[in-house]
Amino acid sequence: MIAAIRGTHDILPGEVEKWQLVEETARQLCARYGYLELRTPIIEHEELFAKGTGESTDIVQKEMYSFTDKGGERVTMRPEATPSMVRAFVEHNLEQTLPAAKLFAMGPMFRYERPQKGRYRQFHQLDVEVFGVNDPAIDAEVIDLAWMLIAALGIERAELVVNSVGCAQCRPAFQEALLKALGDDLPRLCEDCQRRARTNPLRIYDCKVEADQPIIDRLPHSIDYLCEPCATHFRDVRAHLDAFGIPWSLSHRLVRGLDYYTRTTFEILGQALGAQNALLGGGRYDGLVKDLGGPDRPGIGFAAGLERLVLALPASAAPAVPARAFVVAIGDDGRREALVLLRELRAAGLAAQMEFEAKGVRAQMKRADRLQARVALIVGGDELARGEVTLRTMANGDQRSAPRADIVEIVRGLLT
Ligand SMILES: [Zn+2]
Ligand SMILES: [Zn+2]
Question: What is the percent of the chain where pLDDT is above 70?
Fold first, then answer.
């Protein structure tokens, strides 16, 4: 037996319905908010992520599925969607062709991480992005869309945390203050933090190493170093959230694990794996479009982990089994007619099934039970000669005869 690759998983019938529920809810909300779907390839030039996601990130440093293809090209299976979305936005000049550059994508991402419960090497994300809008109202809209998604899925005890990491103007002063505050403690931090101090000191806040925490807790906060435009922007974002009635709290440590974030960052936390986890997260990335060779346009977005959302769904969110009919055949004549009736029901838009292997009525009825059919249609014998079919209500076992000519409409009435 050849098993699935470590870190990947099959989404089986029975579970996939929850995925469909999450995906369908996301699609409907994106449409309501005016976000259009963009599907980008799973493989891109390695350079796109090295530049876009950032050389200093854990993703680019150690987690990318990169390889040389048969043409000698270095390609990467996307570890996140944002650089691909930016590339497509620039490559197709979408700011000219679309009414608004508000986009979403859904699909698999790939990171070579240590597999653990709920964390996979092939995982799935909903990705939402807006290009070209500076106004804090768009930050609030994107956060609101994320919040609505969690609410629409019925996920309870969700918490929104926000922060601002400043811009190219004010960040250098903050980084300097950060390194100064670290001072003699820097050599006592973990190896990753040593590297972060050299490449992107903000990301020291991402450190999960226990021993580092007392030192990190003493570090200065980015919001105390914001320039006037960044401070105003962040104040306006929070004012919009207050006006929407969306509860938020400030998290100084919310710098996000990527290099490109500017100003607003946010996460929605929820109970997914028996502990509090980020269900989704995002922020503003005002320099990224330009860094990737496009025009100087701001951007903001978020990515939601579909695995986490599915895990966080309330038990009541299990989608209902669709009502269906089951056709039971008696004898060869009955079977021929039953197949025709089965097709008529389906052509009329009704869910209907039949058992092709078992011949006995008992075995066929058993199958109807297993499929939780609402109604069984028994076709054969004398009734068929009279132009009738037997109709059995599975819940209570009531049986009656019905004219063959009317049966599709009668079943429609019973199933809908
Ligand atoms: Zn600033
Ligand atoms: Zn550390």
Answer: 99
Q: Which ligand is nearest to the CA of 166?
A: 1
Task: Region of 402 please: left (phi>0), alpha (psi -120 to 50) or beta.
Answer: beta
Q: How far is the CA of 300 from the centre of ligand 2 (A)?
A: 28
- pLDDT digits over 320-347, tens only? 777 999 999 999 889 999 999 999 999 9
164 CA from centroid of ligand 2 (Å): 21
List the alpha helices (DSSP H) in 202-227. 213-217
Q: How far, in Å, from the CA of 185 to the mean position of ligand 1?
A: 27
- Kindly give the distance from the C-alpha atom of residue 199 to the centroid of ligand 2, in angstroms, as a whole number: 14
Gap between the Cα atoms of 416 and 399, Å rounded: 19
As a whole number of angstroms, the distance between CA 22 and CA 191 comes to: 39
Task: Identify the three-state secondary structure at position 178.
Answer: helix
How far does residue 105's CA lie from ligand 1's centre (Å)? 30
Three-class secondary structure of residue 132 per DSSP: coil
**Distance from Cα 280 to the centre of ligand 2, integer Å:** 23
d(CA 283, CA 165) in angstroms, rounded, equals: 10
Angle at 226 between CA 145 and CA 86, to 5 degrees: 45
pLDDT digits (tens, 9 = 90+) for 150-189: 999 999 999 999 999 999 899 999 999 999 999 889 999 9
- What is the distance between the terminal CA atoms of the chain, rounded to a whole angstrom? 44
Find out whether 302 and 281 touch, Cβ atoms under 8 Å: yes
Ligand nearest to the CA of 196: 2
Residue scoring higher pLDDT (116 or 210): 210
Residue 227 φ/ψ region, left for φ over 0, alpha for ψ in the -120 to 50 degree band, beta for the rest? beta
pLDDT value at 248 more than 70: yes
- List Cα–Cα distances, 287 to 78, 169, 192, 302, in angstroms: 20, 12, 25, 16
For 134, the token pair is 């500076």
C-alpha distances (whole Å) from 26 to each of 17, 29, 156, 304 are 14, 5, 17, 10
Residue 68 has pLDDT above 80, yes or no: yes
Q: What's at 11, amino acid-wise?
A: I
pLDDT in tens, 266-324: 999 998 777 778 999 999 999 899 999 999 999 999 999 999 999 999 988 777 777 99
